[in-house]
Design a protein that fits this description.
heterodimer; A: three-stranded antiparallel beta sheet; B: 13-stranded mixed beta sheet; 10 helices
Chain lengths: 228, 472
């Protein structure tokens, strides 16, 4: 009896030691930073809530906001389906739900709608939650940079320039934009520019580049300062 | 007799205790073995786990494979930047001794191509700790200027003395850049400098080199020419903004006129802004949602209006939306505005209106109006281009007649209509043209013929897409 107990204890120790390292790669969170978690908002959250509600995990309202009730439902779903229970919808959880986290491009004919969609993704990733003019302003800054000789000459070149936008560095650029972001992108592409020509913007409470502070601030909308 | 018993007792006791000791010793050995084995097991498990993490696969490649691929991309960008900057420097040098237009055009065209490639490479090498926008500006401007000179030669205008002086000065700057880049070459090729490993390092040599470029006073000619990156573009001075600053009451009255037909609440004035000219910003709650209004401080000219609104079904098509936009602008005091283009995005109609007079359309004087295609409400206005360009306009005399211009249009194009139009050129100036609207193989085109030279200067292709009609 005693020996059996000891053997069982050893097996437990071994299993636990190995399991400690497994979750590190589980949800693919190292590779892709595109996840939906508490605090996220938007159409993907609505899709998640709709599915979880249909399957009986979610009892709250389908409002596109990932709050505490949604968190509980996601964890419930994960525990029942043998996933890592962390309340975060990463690639494995999304796969189990039948959702594609990576944005699927809408039907595109020509470069215009690709530009529009890319701009909308950038606006959504950088400025969702900001006032509408703040979202148009972010789009306008991208377009002002395209026009300027100091930056790359295409929308994709400007957005994907290394270190230019945090949403590219942390993968949020891959989230699906909502209708507001798409409208803001359309307005920006049609010439609406609340910043009147600014080339830089930053959130003063989170900016890390040291040289951004030397730029002349022209105006501020919401939590962003816009500078020339 | 006692001895024997005692002896027996002693033997039994020692026999018993030696048996106990044997058992105890065996148990102890067993315990020790167990402890050693379990420690070994844990160590193996930890070791396996650690090995698993180190070679952890994220996606289909290992972390090390990603690092190598990234380093490869950085190295490629560095080499391409060096190569193209060197080519730009050499080509500019060659231009100083070139005498025939044919050679000059070829070299200028090459410089534009090298410049575009160098700009892309430089942007791929962007660093977090330093801003390389000045260097980017130099590279882009040189390419752009050369493109402008090439088009000059194409119109049979030779390079002027000033052009040649500019090219010489630019050549010196490019050589400086090239030399700085080749200083890094020893580090990259011989000393194993790794871009990836130096990302974010405090004393990184590459960052230091870029910083030096950005802060050194480089003797660079001010480039004023007809091109998009020209230094001559200055939107600050406008003839439209004259007179004094408007008062608070005047400002509010203008905001109300912009929101004619809406039920509105308090008009809140926020901190003004200035980039091209001083502006005042307002926020107003309306029956349709929050309205954001911007007026120019001088004269109170409306700069922009935006109400976030969504449209369902389309009740007001292009023709009706155009009329709504034109009437709206007329009511605000913008005379003679004619709708020239409409785009539909989710049934929000974006109507472009240009000033017209004497039968000529003036495209630089452009105001855009957004009309909700379901309700017919005006929900947006944008007039920055108009403010910067509009002045007293009257028709200028064209050098060539419309018929002569049409002779230069492709035979394959079935012409539908022709009218005179002033169009903006790349460098911020304008030119009078004949706007020819025609059809070929069911594709629609706008061709702009210069009214003085007869050259085609612009072609726009009308594309039918999901976003309605687009011009490309």
């Amino acid at each position: 009896m005693k020996k059996a107990a000891i053997i069982i204890t050893m097996l437990v120790i071994v299993t636990v030691s190995v399991l400690v390292f497994l979750p590190l790669g589980a949800d693919g969170d190292i590779a892709s930073a595109a996840v939906i978690k508490q605090g996220s908002t938007g159409t993907l959250v609505t899709t998640i809530q709709t599915k979880l509600k249909r399957w009986g995990y979610y009892t709250g309202s389908v409002d596109g906001i990932f709050g505490s009730i949604t968190l509980k439902a996601v964890k419930y779903f994960q525990s029942v389906n043998g996933l890592v229970v962390d309340g975060i919808v990463g690639s494995k959880t999304a796969e189990a739900m039948g959702i594609n986290l990576a944005s699927s491009t809408s039907s595109s004919s020509g470069s215009t709608s690709t530009d529009l969609y890319l701009l909308a993704k950038c606006i959504y990733a950088e400025a969702r939650g900001e006032p509408y003019t703040g979202q148009v302003a972010v789009g306008a800054v991208v377009l002002n940079r395209v026009e300027s000789s100091q930056f790359p000459n295409t929308i994709s070149g400007v957005i994907y320039q290394p270190y230019a936008f945090t949403c590219v560095s942390d993968g949020q650029i891959n989230l699906t934009p909502d209708a507001t972001a798409k409208n803001a992108a359309q307005d920006a592409l049609n010439g609406w520019d609340p910043t009147n020509g600014c080339l830089y913007y930053y959130n003063p409470s989170t900016a890390t580049s040291s040289w951004i502070w030397s730029k002349t601030i022209m105006l501020s909308i919401g939590s962003h300062n816009f500078a020339l | 007799m006692n001895n024997y018993t005692d002896n027996n007792n002693y033997n039994i006791e020692s026999a018993i205790s030696s048996e106990e000791t044997k058992e105890r010793r065996a148990a102890k050995r067993w315990k020790t073995a167990l402890i050693i084995l379990s420690v070994l097991f844990v160590l193996t498990a930890l070791g396996l786990g650690l090995a698993w993490v180190v070679t952890s696969r994220a996606g289909n490649a290992t972390a090390e494979e990603y690092r190598i691929a990234m380093e490869g991309m950085y190295q490629k960008s560095y080499y391409e930047l060096s190569y193209n900057v060197g080519n730009m420097a050499n080509s500019l040098n060659k231009l100083s001794v070139s005498n025939t237009e044919y050679m000059q055009k070829e070299v200028l065209s090459n410089i534009s191509a090298y410049s575009a490639s160098a700009a892309t490479s430089l942007s791929s090498l962007a660093q977090d700790q330093v801003d390389s926008s000045k260097t980017m500006k130099y590279i882009n401007q040189v390419g752009d200027y050369c493109k402008f000179l090439e088009s000059k030669l194409n119109k049979d205008e030779p390079l002027s003395e000033e052009d040649r002086d500019n090219l010489d000065a630019l050549s010196i700057v490019m050589y400086d850049l090239r030399d700085a880049l080749s200083e890094m070459q020893t580090e990259v090729q011989n000393n194993g400098y790794s871009f990836v490993e130096n990302l974010g390092a405090d004393d990184d040599i590459f960052t230091g080199m870029v910083e030096k470029w950005e802060t050194e006073t480089i003797s660079y000619p001010s480039m004023i020419y007809d091109g998009p990156f020209s230094d001559g573009l200055d939107k600050g001075e406008t003839s439209l903004l004259n007179g004094g600053d408007i008062t608070d009451e005047e400002g509010e009255a203008i905001v109300r006129s912009l929101l004619e037909g809406r039920e509105i609440g308090d008009i809140k004035q926020s901190e003004g802004s200035k980039t091209y000219f001083e502006c005042i910003d307002y926020t107003v709650e309306t029956d349709l949602g929050t309205a954001y209004v911007t007026l120019a401080r001088q004269g109170g000219v409306p700069v922009s209006l935006k109400i976030t609104d969504y449209a369902g079904v389309l009740n007001f098509d292009s023709a009706r939306s155009e009329k709504i936009a034109e009437d709206y602008l007329a009511a605000l005091g913008f005379d003679n505005m004619k709708a020239v283009w409409v785009s539909n995005y989710n049934n929000i109609m974006y109507v472009n209106c240009a000033y017209h007079n004497d039968g000529v359309i003036f495209y630089p004087d452009l105001i855009k109006v957004q009309v909700n295609g379901e309700s017919g409400d005006v929900i947006g206005l944008e007039s920055l281009t108009y403010i910067c360009n509009h002045r007293d306009r009257s028709a200028a005399n064209a050098e060539i007649a419309a018929e002569a211009a049409l002779n230069n249009v492709s035979m394959d194009l079935q012409v539908v209509s022709v009218r005179q139009a002033v169009v903006p050129t790349n460098g911020g100036s304008e030119t009078l043209t004949y706007e020819v609207y025609g059809v070929k193989d069911r594709d629609k085109y706008f061709i702009y013929i210069d009214a003085d030279s007869g050259y085609e200067i612009k072609i726009m292709h009308v594309i039918d897409s999901e976003q309605g009609l687009l011009l490309q």
